[in-house]
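Journal club prep, shared notes

We agreed each person brings one worked example of a sequence with its structure written out as tokens. Mine is Biotin transporter. I'm keeping it raw so we can talk through how to read the token line rather than staring at a rendered picture. Sequence first:
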Amino acid sequence: MKNAGRKRRFPTGDLARVAVFAALIAVLGLPGSFNVFGNAVPITLQTLGVMLAGAILGTWRAALAVVVLLVLVAAGLPLLAGGRGGLGVFAGPSAGFLIGWIPGAALTGWLVERAGRNPGTAQLVLACLAGGVGVVYLFGIPVQAVVTGASLGTTAWFALAFVPGDLIKAVLAAVVVRGTQRAYPDAVPTVYRERLRAGRMH
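Then the structure, token by token:
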């Protein structure tokens, strides 16, 4: 029985979803990136994918999707916006933001999991802001300051350029997730957790 329980932790369907969202985050990098106000870190759409992963997949699956993407990037695949890839990106100004995607996606998923079987749009927006913005900035800004040699205050000031776009992404992610969960109730992370627990009891 213990072995059966372990097998259910990584069912094929979950691995497929993880792969799909890793690919989604990569695809959102295709439009490219741009820098504003001289900021060394570019603005991209990929944080939208991080938010979507968290809100749809839940905690651990979302984090795993981001890990899969970053491992592929580290292996040299140009999956980041602007065709960036390789170990060098983890030594650059964006390194902290990239690493922050992992706990950011996880926190977004954790909050949505605890929002019940029918999370509202406002709850989804707040979850996306907390994880996809708050946590990502918490990791990204200090690392950028260290890498660039700028003060923490100056770096945080530059990061304000990201805020309007990230607010829009959070709202857009919430709307998309809300529509997805209405069409597919099983996509709600809380429902997934309940089904997983029920499966472990049998």
